[in-house]
Amino acid sequence: MAAPALEDVAQALAELVQEALMRGESVYVPGIGTFSVEHHGSTTEQLPDGRLVLHPPRDVVCFTPEATSAEPEASH
């Protein structure tokens, strides 16, 4: 059995992350970082002509990269 292609692995990871985020879960990927969802409430904006526009609430996908050390590890 052949090893999966990098594109296949990336696609599978993307699908798993998307499904978890849709359930409201955060996803930690070792060596990469954490994907999460933040909820932004509705906002009102006044246009230059004086009209008010209501922007509905929305969920936003956020990514926090994994912290890395200041110096790369020496290879032996």
TrEMBL record:
<dbReference type="GO" id="GO:0030527">
    <property type="term" value="F:structural constituent of chromatin"/>
</dbReference>
<comment type="similarity">
    <text>Belongs to the bacterial histone-like protein family.</text>
</comment>
<dbReference type="InterPro" id="IPR000119">
    <property type="entry name" value="Hist_DNA-bd"/>
</dbReference>
<protein>
    <recommendedName>
        <fullName>HU family DNA-binding protein</fullName>
    </recommendedName>
</protein>
<dbReference type="InterPro" id="IPR010992">
    <property type="entry name" value="IHF-like_DNA-bd_dom_sf"/>
</dbReference>
<dbReference type="Pfam" id="PF00216">
    <property type="entry name" value="Bac_DNA_binding"/>
</dbReference>
<keyword id="KW-0238">DNA-binding</keyword>
<dbReference type="GO" id="GO:0003677">
    <property type="term" value="F:DNA binding"/>
</dbReference>
